[in-house]
Amino acid sequence: MLVMLYAVAMRVLFRYEQEQVAAFVEEQPTYPELTLRQAVAGYVTVGLVVVAAGSWLPFVADVLAQQMGWGESFVGTLLVAAVTSAPEVVVTVAAVRLGAVDMAMGNLLGSNLFNVVILALDDLLYLPGPLFADVSPAHAVSALSAMTMGGLAISGLVLRPASRVLRTVSWVSVLLLAVYLLNGLYHHLHGT
After folding, report:
1. How far is CA 144 from the centre of its chain?
2. How much is the average pLDDT of 174-186?
3. Which residue from 154, 135, 142, 151 is spatially nearest to 180, judged by alpha carbons?
4. pLDDT tier, 136 (very low <50, low <70, confident <90, very high otherwise)
5. pLDDT by residue (tens digit) across 96-116?
6. Terminus of the chain with fewer CB atoms < 10 Å: N or C?
7. DSSP string spanning 41-104?
8. Which of 136, 137, 138, 144 has its CA nearest to residue 189?
9. Phi/psi of residue 169, each to 5°?
10. SS3 label, residue 142
11. Residue closest to 6 by CA, chosen among 102, 105, 110, 143
């Protein structure tokens, strides 16, 4: 079901982007000094570094949780998630600096969609039985937090908040941060 929903979401986003991308692409500068071969080589090199680091990360996180006496759900939900989200942060900040706000939002929402569909692959590869049967119930709080944050993001996209808190960020951003911090506090106090 997750894979099917992911495919539908990607198709809807693809159609939307087809309508939007033409105007944006014409306005962007080109990089004649960078060849396609150089771009692909750089992309593959950095991709391999990310895969290697990502493969090593669960082992480091497990040792960290044991050494610090923290719960695995706390370390996984907050620390591993923060580290693995670093590439999305870089891309999002770069997109915002270019003025490509839709690209920044698409990057974040698409990344979250992809992370959820990974659960379907994990479930397939987890041989002892259904994946969800063996995870800590503490992750239900993270799932509820993620759904709440998704709802807030959708509300922000639909309602388009006009005011800012202390002239800096919207109320939606404040609520997103609050839900994230409350989830982290829950896992610190009650996680496994």
Report:
1. 16
2. 92
3. 142
4. confident
5. 898 888 888 888 888 888 888
6. N
7. HHHHHHHHHHHHHHHHHHHHHHHHHHHHT--HHHIIIIIIHHHHTHHHHHHHHHHHHHT-HHHH
8. 138
9. -130, 165
10. helix
11. 110
